[in-house]
Amino acid sequence: MRSTRRELLKLMAATGGALTASGLLISRTSTTSSAADAVPVADQMRLAPLVTPFQTAMPIPPVLRPVSVTSTTDTYVLPIKQASAEILPGTSTPVLTYGGTFPGPTIKARSGRRTVVRQVNQIADGTSMHLHGAVVDPANDGGPMDLIAPGASRTYTYTNQQVAATLWYHDHAHHVEAEHVYRGMSGLYLISDSNEASLPLPRGSYDVPVVVRDIGLNEDGTLYFDHLFNSRPQILVNGKPQPYFQVAARKYRLRILNGSNQRPFEFRLSTGDEFVQIASDRGLLSAPYTTTSVPLSPAERADIVVDFSRYPVGTSVVLKNSYFPAPGTEDIVRFDVVRTADDPSSVPARLAELPPTAAPTATRAFSLEFDDTTGDGTINGKLWDENRVDTTVRAGDTEIWEITNTHPFIPHNFHIHLVDFRVLDINGKPPTPGEAGLKDTVRVQAGETVRILVSFKYPHYGRYYYHCHLIDHSSMGMMANLDIVRA
Q1: In this predicted structure, what is the pLDDT of residue 45?
Q2: At the topology level of CATH, where does 204-340 sit?
Q3: 106-116: per-residue pLDDT in tens?
């Protein structure tokens, strides 16, 4: 781990690149070698050549079917198993999965209705499934040391006492979570509620998950894994390399998840046209936000509505990454308008009532630090230690948390288990309307300070966690323990 972080710095110089405050590899800076001296990353690492974009159709992850249904509970079986996926056309790639698919199947839940997930761990490592964004008691949170041993089984219970939101599940076993997620152990978990159902938003086949991530493939098609940021030049959407997706000339809801380990994205349409953001991490915004871009760091989510009726049949529109993309990472997915369709959907002026905020009872400061020499990630100077209590809060309290990224160019972000929060300001500036809703993960770019208002309103007590969700960084120790106690 430590040697790979040193190699990252060497590689950045060798490739004529640098990680900027936005967290992306820029192709060249004035302080690095000339173009003639730069060696392509794929050549140095013997990675497979990048796939020509738009050669493969974008699949929709399968929806997991319950094995039993009662008046209160839906029960699912979701084994943890090795499988193979056809990422490169005609090539079989070994992957780690939930349920045998890459990415894992989507679980659809209903607010207030119980979901039970039974797992058997059929791989060689211990695992711990965390439902990211869930309001859940500690026993079902999927803590980093609360492992399912190889060959063992476990049942997770989610009561879904929260509003409609696009959540996702992933492995959280400490020191191996980054590699497990990278190799495929994640999937979507969609909660609906009566308010969302009452809105005339696009639904059914016009409500489309878009899980974006990056990988590196060896020449034989196997996944290449280390902690080097730019050893992952191939962009995937729903498990396929930069695919195309056929759409009708009408509105679509796109549920975008940045499922990468480290890479931030900023999503735009190739036409430069506006779209409407309707939700962020933990649910619908109070009102729609019309914009031309949505930036997402790893684990952040945004639901957007794109109206393809403005394009004639036969038009193609590309969802692009404009966050200083490295070569090959600019194109995400191409939407091909292939037919007309009726469209009864619309985006109402009001989407949801956000809960009122309370006056803060305390202010806490958190410093995210990364040591380029050792590869250690720390919070307030400390590597994660399961046996140490880092922060104790009282249930019911509301606090301001000030989070500072001390590194001059490496980005971070910040995720808190259980709770949602509101972004107050970023370097003293208010958030955009798209960032002003209910969040559970927030970007903290190099040198920035972000203030959030955190409400510990949920009736759960015990051990939770907060960490950088550039998940390689949490594997390297940038995580801390949060104990919630009764008032």
Answers
A1: 65
A2: Immunoglobulin-like (2.60.40)
A3: 999 999 999 99
Q: Strand pairing partners for 304?
A: 254, 277
DSSP per position, 324-393 = SPPTT-SEEEEEEEEEE--------S----PPPP---SEEEEEEEEE-TTT--EEETTB---TT---EEE
CB 390 within 8 A of CB 383: no
What is the per-residue burial (b if ≥16 Cβ within 10 Å, else e) of 77-96? ebebeebebebbeeeebebb
Closest to 484 measured CA to CA, from 405, 396, 412: 396
Measured from the Cβ of residue 181, the count of other Cβ atoms closer than 10 Å reads 24
Domain 68-198 sits in CATH at 2.60.40.420
Count Cβ atoms within 10 A of the Cβ of residue 390 and give its class: 0-12 exposed, 13-18 middle, 19 or more buried: middle
* Calpha distance 430→415 (Å, rounded): 19
312 and 299 in contact (C-beta within 8 Å)? no
pLDDT at position 227, please? 83
Residue spans of the chain under pLDDT 70: 1-45
Residues 6+ apart with CB under 8 A from 293: 266, 267, 268, 322
> Residue 129 and residue 487: Cα distance in Å, rounded?
29
Q: Locate 307 and state its tokens.
A: 């109206």
- Measured CA to CA in angstroms, residue 264 lies from 176, 234, 324, 386, 401 at distances of 21, 14, 10, 28, 23
Q: In angstroms, how far is the first alpha carbon of the chain from the final one?
A: 41
**Residues above pLDDT 90, as percent of the chain:** 87
- Segment 337-385, tens digit of pLDDT: 999 999 999 999 999 999 999 999 999 999 999 998 999 999 999 999 9
Residue for token pair 């476990």: 154
> 72 to each of 90, 117, 160, 163, 479, how far by Cα in Å?
44, 14, 12, 17, 35
Start and end residues for every CATH 2.60.40.420 domain found in the chain: 68-198, 204-340, 362-485
Q: Which two tokens stand for residue 208?
A: 């489309």
Residue with tokens 């497990």: 180
DSSP state of 52: P
Q: Which residues lie closer than 8 Å to 348 by C-beta, 6 or more apart? A: 199, 200, 288
How many H-runs (helices) and E-runs (strands) does the chain carry? 5, 35
Decide: 172 and 186 in contact? Cβ < 8 Å. Answer: no
- CATH class of this structure's domain 362-485: mainly beta
Q: Which residue is associated with the tokens 């390689």?
A: 472
